[in-house]
Hints:
Layout: H1 2-11, H2 16-27, H3 32-38, H4 40-43, H5 48-77, H6 83-91, H7 95-102, H8 112-118, H9 122-130, H10 137-142, H11 154-171, H12 173-186, E1 188-193, E2 209-213, H13 219-230, E3 234-239, H14 242-253, H15 261-308, E4 318-322, E5 329-334, E6 340-346, H16 355-368, E7 373-377, H17 382-390, E8 399-403, H18 408-412, H19 415-420, H20 426-439, H21 441-445, H22 464-482, E9 484-485, H23 491-495, H24 502-515, H25 532-538, E10 542-543, H26 561-570, H27 575-580, H28 582-586, H29 600-611, E11 641-650, E12 653-657, E13 664-667, E14 688-697, E15 702-706, H30 716-731
Parallel strand pairs: 4-7, 7-8, 9-10, 13-15
Antiparallel strand pairs: 1-2, 1-3, 4-5, 5-6, 11-12, 11-14, 12-13, 14-15
Helix pairs in contact: 1-2, 2-5, 8-11, 9-11, 11-15, 12-14, 12-15, 13-15, 14-15, 15-22
Amino acid sequence: MTSQVNxxxxxxxxxxxxxxxVLKMLGEGATIPFMARYRKExxxxxxxxxxxxxxxxxxQLTALQKRKxxxxxxxxxxxxxxxxxxxxxxxxxxxxxxxxxYLPYKPKRRTKATIAREKGLExxxxxxxxxxxxxxxxxxxxxxxxxxxGVSDVTEALKGAQDIIAEWINxxxxxxxxxxxxxxxxxxxxAKVIRGKEEEGSKxxxxxxxxxxxxxxxxxxxxxLRRGEKEMILSLNIRPEEEDAIYALEYQFVKGxxxxxxxxxxxxxxSYKRLMGPSLETEARINSKDKADxxxxxxxxxxxxxxxxxxxxxxxxxxxxxxxFRTGCKVVCLSPLGVLLEKDAIYPHPxxxxxxxxxxxxxxxxxxxxxxxxxxGNGTAGRETESWLKEIGLxxxxxxxxxxxxxxxxxxxxxxxxxxFPNEDVTVRGAVSIGRRLMDPLxxxxxxxxxxxxxxxxxxxxxxxxxKKTLDDTVIxxxxxxxxxxxxxxxQLLTYVSGLGPSLAENIVKYRDTNGSFxxxxxxxxxxxxxxxAYEQAxxxxxxxxxxxxxxxxxxxxxxxxxxxxxAKDLAVQVQDLMEDEKLRKKIDLKKYASDSVGLPTLKxxxxxxxxxxxxxxxxxxxxxxxxxxxxxxxxxxxxxxxGIVTNITDFGAFVDIGVHQDGLVHLSQMxxxxxxxxxxxxxxxxxxxxxxxxxxxxxxxxxLSMKTExxxxxxxxxxxxxxxxxxxxxx
Length: 732
């Protein structure tokens, strides 16, 4: 534990007490949201990202330590462990260096070097490798010729000795470290199309003849290359210039010029081509893939965060339509709490074209259920349905809003949907999901596997364990940031609350169904298997709207209620008065209530929460509409300026829905008049933007968009920055 604290604090530039506190609380079962929100004094106000970094690095160091223990045990059992070797193993800072140390002692299958040793050629190899000036390898090799041992002539003896030398060079820790550095800094990612696959792999055309430094290649490009290789369209290599690698090895192992030198050089070349090169290329592939995975997963996680925290419509009566042509549009009406009130089907489009009947149904349902908003899925027939609704004379108070339905079909066929609506078919479930997604994106999207929401980048190519862990972290962070109303939340939403999980979430719902609504947070302790630890972790993130104690509807943790009550008592008022009167709150001297366990960070959070109890951190909902008359790609013309919604962000740009069933791409170079490194500097998922159409390729289903403003002279500082960036690129 102490060594981990020292390493992590140094690497992450954090104080030791912060790292120690986080590791201790993680060991006790504390969650990241809980520590970030309610243990600021202990952690020194670390945020969720920093706490997650400590957790992840601790897991890596724990895995490293387990590997060290396994290696030491193996060495000891084979009586190979010395004090120096033990010290080297224990001090190894990472897996690569640890495996380099262990490589010479690792149990081996029969290799060329093993066979040569069995023939008694190791003494010859040692003499050649020493490269003494008066030593003649050819003459000396003659004494190792032995038909019984399988050495028929001098040539075979010398070749066997070189095999042994090649293995020594490959297993040299310093040589591997030096070449590993060359691979990372000077390695090149090269790709070529496999002969005969040109037509089949046309989508990889940009990579048919490709070279880019490994140190510079962006994650999306590396993942695309690896996918092309996996599909057997591309052949892929990651190597430095061979002469750079050979020069480094010769610098270390060749000692001047003598009769042994040519044999050492040949062994060195063989070692690089047969052993060290392939090994280090595999390592470079793994390391670069790991790095690309992290970058891609982080992009996915940030997109997911923005989507989950999209502005909710709130509690309004909603009509939701899952549009279609031949099969019609499924219509559902939902109460302000998302309860399914009524369902129907209408056929306003060809081939039925029952427009009058469909219009009458919509108007009847609006009046019957006091509908305030109509949500329309953006899939097949979405824009046509939206246009039709706007033409049938809806009440002015009713808004029509397009909703991204990515993943709705996954939900409608899921076990979650069958459990919620056992007597409804998938079309009804899908329409309900569309309506609820508008009302509260977070509450509905947690029911769907994040990978089905459509905001990822090469999500099937990255490490699936890393992806799941990161996306789960993101969902948990978002759910706890917003808070959950315990009396209306679904089992799926409660699952992500700090300290709960699927089992306790189900128990809460069962208890609620049996005993009625919770009247206080303390009632949660009556839920089977929800003990003090789970209560401590979860209570602050659960809200009870109509509770007797007004603090139960806030983010103030029950462990701090006594502080607020003392504040109120000192002012001779009620807690509710503090929450309603800013003048009263201004009279409070926070220092008076500070203690060893509760400091100013927590007290300031309490005051913020008293000012806006249970506030939703998400932005206010704004109605959005696509451009009228632009429903298909064929309606687009270069130069058009259109409203759109950002649906996905990648390293190379942002995809924008402009209402034509095919998202357009705003490339990084078209995102702003100034130089930017990443799209997130300009946009976020679900952001409403105006874009200009700069290219339409109907055959390839590609739309090129721009967010640049009209050309105008850029500030001089921008020119200087761009010029410097260009020069820097050329210098590389």
